[in-house]
């Protein structure tokens, strides 16, 4: 117990009984400050004005019975512990008293110092525990309300993000569609330019001067570059719109590599680079999309040639296991600094992002290449050292993932014929 005296209110119309209670508590050695009331009305007045640590209440009072007084006290919001002192024969209503809010009860005839002190301590302990529980409850309620509010705020944020996501997706779709439309529309006049410049170069179309021939050749070469870039943009927009899929079939990988390297030879010759193949395949037959695998090789080879000024570019192919194949494109070029390696596979990322950059390109080649290899269930990695060169390493299964041509809905021999008859490498 605290050293400060306990504030006790004794409500009893009998002065002798009040004194008995007072004495009993004091005799137990408890320091108390006693206030007294003789009637219910008097008790209510005091209780409304002051707070007490415990109330001792005579069950039978002149103006009201104890039960009604307890109900009144509790309905006033007074929560102090309350011990009812009953007369002979009043014990039967004990249950009602407890229900109404009494902390305990004791027959007046059984009052002893020890009992009263014990009851007082118990009632106060219970009261304190109840107060603490109420406090904890209140805090829990507050936390719960806070959580509900936070949850509401989070839900609102989630809705907002969802809304923004929808808008972004819509914007991205529009962008992809725009890219697809523009690149598609640009390809038509460009193909005409390529076709006519090729025609002009034919001897049957009359003799051009040397200067004119060179100019037309440059129109043709630049047009082809432009077409390749447009095709990259178109492929990228297809990838973004999830409209690019593989058309696997059986073919000879060695033939594909040799043919692709052959097509790139003129570029390597222009830069006086050695272009070679090192193919060590026990079994060269694979099941994959030849057009897309060729596109991957063209991307890697044209990068290798573009970023190599002297030395060699070579393609290596071998089996890691009967089912896993390795294709590597090596060069002795400028290499890539470690801090740039991480993002070269991202779309539109180039080591040199300046407007005055030396090497042309869209920055889409490796992004498309990586997506294609992943669609085939393979991986692509790079080992590179600035000033020494780079190796782009592809690992794929002999049997690539993706739907087989014959199983594809709507696929047929007409499409197959168109695909194999395609004259330009990157025009699918
Ligand atoms: P692009 O070639 O159109 O710029 P890519 O996506 O093919 O775009 O390549 C991204 C960047 O990665 C290139 O701009 C270049 O900086 C770097 N890179 C790719 N291949 C090589 C290579 N063989 N050697 C050095 N740098 C390379």
Oligomeric category:
single chain
Global geometry: rod-shaped
Ligand names? adenosine-5'-diphosphate
Helix count from the secondary structure assignment: 11
Low-confidence stretches: 403-428
Q: Structural class of the helices, strands and pairings?
A: alpha/beta
Radius of gyration: 47 Å
Measured as a percent range, the helix fraction is 40-55%
Strand order of the largest sheet: 2-1-3-4-5
Q: Tell me the fraction of residues in β-strands, as a range.
A: 15-25%
How far apart are the first and last residues' alpha carbons, in Å? 92 Å
Record field, number of beta strands: 12
Largest sheet: 5 strands, parallel
Mean pLDDT, rounded to whole units?
87
Q: Topology as H/E string?
A: EHEHEHEHEHHEHEEHEEHHEEH
Briefly summarize what is shown:
Helix content is 51%, strand content 17%. With 428 residues, it is of the alpha/beta class. Helix 1 (15-27) links the parallel strand 1 (6-11) and strand 2 (32-37).
What does this structure look like?
This protein is α/β, with parallel strands linked by helices. Helix content is 51%, strand content 17%. It has eleven helices and twelve strands. The strands form three sheets. It has a five-stranded parallel beta sheet, sandwiched between helices. Strand 3 (54-58), helix 3 and strand 4 (82-86) form a beta-alpha-beta unit. The radius of gyration is 47 Å and the shape is rod-shaped. The two termini are 92 Å apart. The chain binds adenosine-5'-diphosphate. Adenosine-5'-diphosphate binds at residues 299, 303-304, 307, 331, 333-336, 344, 350-351, 361-367, 390.
């Amino acid at each position: 117990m605290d050293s400060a005296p306990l504030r006790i209110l004794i409500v009893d119309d009998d002065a002798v009984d009040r004194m008995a209670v007072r004495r009993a508590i004091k005799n137990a050695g408890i320091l108390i400050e006693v206030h007294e009331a003789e009637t219910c009305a008097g008790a209510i007045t005091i209780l409304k004005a002051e707070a007490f640590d415990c109330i001792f209440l005579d069950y039978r009072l002149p103006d009201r019975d104890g039960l009604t007084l307890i109900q009144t006290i509790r309905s006033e919001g007074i929560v102090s512990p309350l011990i009812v002192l009953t007369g002979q024969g009043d014990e039967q209503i004990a249950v009602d008293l407890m229900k109404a809010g009494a902390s305990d009860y004791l027959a007046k005839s059984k009052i002893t110092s020890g009992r009263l002190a014990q009851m007082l301590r118990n009632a106060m302990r219970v009261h304190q525990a109840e107060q603490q529980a109420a406090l904890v409850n209140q805090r829990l309620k507050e936390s719960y309300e806070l959580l509900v509010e936070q949850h509401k705020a989070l839900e609102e944020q989630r809705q907002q993000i969802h809304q923004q996501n929808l808008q972004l997706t819509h914007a991205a779709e529009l962008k992809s569609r725009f890219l697809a439309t523009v690149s598609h529309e640009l390809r038509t006049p460009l193909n005409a330019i390529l076709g006519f410049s090729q025609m002009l170069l034919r001897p049957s179309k009359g003799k051009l001067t040397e200067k004119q021939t060179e100019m037309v050749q440059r129109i043709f070469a630049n047009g082809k570059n432009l077409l390749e870039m447009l095709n990259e943009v178109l492929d990228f927009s297809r990838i973004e719109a999830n409209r690019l899929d593989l058309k696997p079939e059986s073919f000879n990988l060695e033939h594909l590599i040799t043919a692709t390297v052959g097509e790139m030879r003129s570029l390597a010759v222009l830069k006086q680079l050695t272009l070679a193949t090192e193919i060590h395949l026990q079994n060269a037959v694979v099941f994959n999309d030849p057009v897309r695998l060729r596109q991957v090789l063209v991307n890697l080879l044209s990068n290798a040639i573009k970023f190599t000024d002297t030395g060699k570019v070579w393609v290596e192919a071998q089996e890691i296991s009967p089912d896993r194949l390795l294709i590597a494109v090596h060069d002795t070029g400028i290499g890539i600094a470690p801090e740039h390696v991480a993002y070269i596979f991202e779309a539109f990322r180039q080591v040199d992002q300046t407007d005055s950059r030396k090497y042309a390109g869209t920055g889409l080649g490796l992004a498309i290449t990586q997506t294609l290899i992943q669609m085939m269930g393979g991986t692509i990695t790079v080992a590179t050292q600035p000033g020494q060169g780079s190796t782009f390493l592809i690992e794929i299964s002999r049997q690539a993932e993706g739907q087989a041509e014959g199983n594809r809905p709507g696929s047929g021999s007409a499409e197959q014929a168109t695909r194999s008859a395609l004259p330009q490498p990157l025009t699918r």
